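Please produce the structure of this protein holding guanosine-5'-monophosphate.
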Amino acid sequence: MASIFSRIIAGEIPSYRIAEDERYYAFLDINPLAPGHTLVVPKKEVDYLFDVDDETLSGLLPFAKKVGRAIEKTVPCERIGLTVIGLEVPHAHVHLIPINGIHDMDFSKAKLDMAPERMEALAAKIRSALAGES
Ligand code: 5GP
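Below is the modeled complex.
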């Protein structure tokens, strides 16, 4: 069965899309640690990041970098943290999280519950920043 992220990429499940190209898809995490928390996913479904082929893996960081730059233009923060967990969804991905300190990367703390309108507005702002409109 396709992973939840493959179903999102295919458009079967809605997402707050930030960016995509032929190989990668970026969208807001539905339960963010901070506003702007974004997931970057290779479209090719592989569970474990270290099983992703080298070519796909080497394109992932440049793609995530562009997305991260757009997030930092949109969400006030010291920088964007990048991490890999992968314990919940068996489809390799990286987390991009606006941070001001190490505590902002603590995945054991309570996640935010952001209203859909706020999520969509934030996604739109990040997309604009990505397009160089802000
Ligand atoms: P991990 O697999 O890295 O441990 O965590 C998966 C992440 O995906 C979690 O932060 C979770 O909130 C997020 N997530 C799980 N299901 C969905 C979903 O259906 N949509 C979105 N946008 N994020 C999801």
